[in-house]
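thread from #wetlab-drylab

HS: before we spend reagent money on co-crystallization trials with phosphoric acid mono(formamide)ester, can we at least see a predicted complex? here's what I'd submit
DV: go for it
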Amino acid sequence: MSPRHFLTLKDLSSDELKRLLSRASELKKIHHEGTLFEPLKNRVLAMIFEKSSTRTRVSFEAGMAQFGGHALFLSSRDTQLGRGEPVEDSARVISSMVDAVMIRTFDHETVETFAKYSSVPVINALTDDYHPCQLLADMQTYQEHRGDIEGKKVIWVGDGNNMCNSYINAAALLNFQLVVACPKGYEPNAELVAEHQDRVTIVHSAQEAAKNADLIVTDVFASMGQEDEQEQRVKDFEGFQVNAELMALANSDALFMHCLPAHRGEEVSAEVIDHPNAVVWDEAENRLHAQKALLEFLLCN
Ligand code: CP
Ligand code: NVA
């Protein structure tokens, strides 16, 4: 039987996602109480990184250690993957030795191919198209601060990137309204938008989108791999900064999230990161708890 993978949020049903989010909060409590809980004793997670990371690496590695298991950091620079060994071959070999594999890479197709040839669960830890692990943490964070997100209005400000595509999937699974405010030419995946047109609206003004918002989210103008476009994007994204004026248009209890790292003064003003309604540090910490819930779901069921 082929293993369960987590390549996009849609690999979970709506009910499974909701259960996983609640479990993440339980695991957070267990961790904060200092209770030893080692459901993955002697299990190994291979972590393949073809792009940089702070939060993803630390949260998966710490999570595996806390669960009594072990995590292996594999950079494409130091493995045969970086020297052209086929993904199919690497998947067969690596998955024969470990219990799960986490991959951060460029093409989404790479994680799909890896998963096809892997005998153990594969987790997408960010591709150019999706960042589902971050959404687990974001949705956990919203729930912990404000309760159920169903029926709420969420505003995505900026690039229609991997995070934005994952927000569309979250809107479909958790039943909230998503308004994407982006410059023309920077819209999210058109097929995904068409598929979920009952949940997603695209506008080209952040001010128009922000009215009555319950949650405002943004991300960098240029993602990893788009460094050459940085200068052009700073010009194209003028008017798409989340700042105190924009926050003031939203509901007074609207939360602010950013997956981090943030570029203060570009997509977000420094004052918003420190705004009383900004929950970016909880959001980052929840990467740990949400991914522990994911590992438990994939490996202990
Ligand atoms: N948010 C996030 O995925 O951060 P890292 O790139 O540091 O892993
Ligand atoms: N959109 C960003 C997210 C970083 C966590 C990127 O892909 O670089």
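DV: Residues 280-300 form the longest helix (21 residues).
HS: ok that's useful, forwarding to the group
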